[in-house]
Amino acid sequence: MNDNKKSLYAVIIFLFIGFVLIQNKRSSTSSEITENEIMGHIRYLSHDKREGRYPGSRGSKDAISYIVKKFKSFGVLPGVNNSYIQPFNIKTGVELGDSNYTKINNRILNVKEDYIPLFFSGQGKSSGIAVFAGYGFKINEKELVWDDYKNIDVDGKWVIVMRHSPERENKHSIYTEHSSLHKKMLVARDAGAIGVLFVSQIEDDGLFPLQYMKGYSNGGIPALHLSNDIADDLFKKIGWTREKIQKTMNKKLAPLNFDLNSIKIETNVNLLAQTSRAANVIGLIKSGNREFRDEYVVIGAHFDHVGRGGLSSGSRKPKENLIHPGADDNASGTAGLIELAQKLSAQKSRLKRSVLLIGFDAEEKGLLGSKYFISNPIVDLEKITTMINMDMIGRMKDSTFTIGGVGTSPIFNSLLDSLSKNKKFKINKTLPGFGPSDHAAFYSKEIPVLFFFTGFHDEYHTPYDTWRLINLNGQKSILDFVYEVTFFLARSPQRPLFSEAGPKNNSMEKRTAFKVTFGIMPNYGSAAIGLEIDQISNTDGPAAKAGIVSGDIIKSINGKEIKNIYEYMERLGELESGTSITVEIERNKRIIELNVSF
Fold first, then answer.
1. Which domain holds residue 251?
2. pLDDT class of 216 with cuts at 50, 70, 90
3. How many Cβ atoms from other residues are within 10 Å of residue 398's Cβ?
4. Coil, strand or helix at 161
């Protein structure tokens, strides 16, 4: 678009805005956004009785009921047929089933006392003799060569390996990226092992906790952690101790392996997924305008938070078992959604386009609510003209807040400048459409987005994000502005055109120093065995050129099986630029083999 056209378009926007604002001032002010109402919503949503609004919890259900009740009171219509609720399931944990057992020779072990299955363990029965394979390393790099599997046969056998590395306290050690339990399981599985038993270093006490880790799934072979007492008895029978093994490897910085043919291991692993019922809340303000009523402006805000925190919750204080109220994140945005529902509903007769109001669940779990909506839309996605997202809008500082996604339509910059003229706040505009909140799912589908945000703070994802720290005056200013933007977009004859503004994903490939990339965006919420592809992020990348498309599930790379995103990342790290490999994908329940070149 040339400068003359931009200037003309800016003038047209300015004149139209003037007309809209004059008409708006003539309307009733009985449904105005007020600081008292904002605070009332925030205090309810962030109250201790909501217990941090963890998806599927009683507190989350209270929040859902509260939003629905408010929508009904404003005359907002149900957005999902005759319901305000769009339910979906999320995996929230893992627990032991009824039939777990492990036997070493003739000794039956007690689960949770003598051993524990790990969160990525495979399921089912397994039986065989054992070998010991040091730290479980198989490394051949310029800086480090270490192969605990050299000169031993592990095919069809159990592998026993030691946790950690020779430099367990050094986070920057050259061993660190090879030391995770999951990585060691993968190496053992590639070598043909039927199971892996982990034993602790002498500094470790207790069993590794059985806890759900998002993204990990059935590793294909059983993976167990032995208690120190059982491990000591096992090595004593063959003349070794854990201390002697550890000191030998650490002193020589060299592999150590040996057969344990006198030891037979039998197991059955049964792990059960714990699921919760989450739900988006969707309301509809239906325009009466015949020409535009089937187009939609979406306003969204997530209402979930991290509950009481804990490991893998996203809490920045994971060891504190305290309610995380999430007043700013994101009771503030949810309060804004409710207030805007009230004001826009009162202006329904003046709207040309309809407005969808969406309270997203499970945003903190990986944007699961917005991704579910995009995968299961209640309206044609092409009819959504703009998605406006509010996340953490309650802590304005220095009369300044951020609007992201300004580059996703050529009209947004001029529109925001015109509407903010003579306002008592300043806007920090950023262009990219992708961001760490629910608008990202819409941007990936080429829908223009605007993201309202007042910034991170020390209380973010801690028990101290409370209503007392909310800047009410600042939040009201933001909501009044969001209303003006929405009102304009719902009345303008021209819908915003989409323009690409930065990548459509935050691919793990780009955040890790790999030698090659596929040019894909993984589906982080997929339950498929393998790596399901959400988007092709680079249309000239290796995946696209090989014929891989969105929805394909990568099952193996270079002959090595893949069961989840973490195994994909491990395989990716092994590849070199300038090589060609075979990749097996599942498409429409058929396995297809493709050649991929880097």
1. 99-269
2. confident
3. 8
4. strand
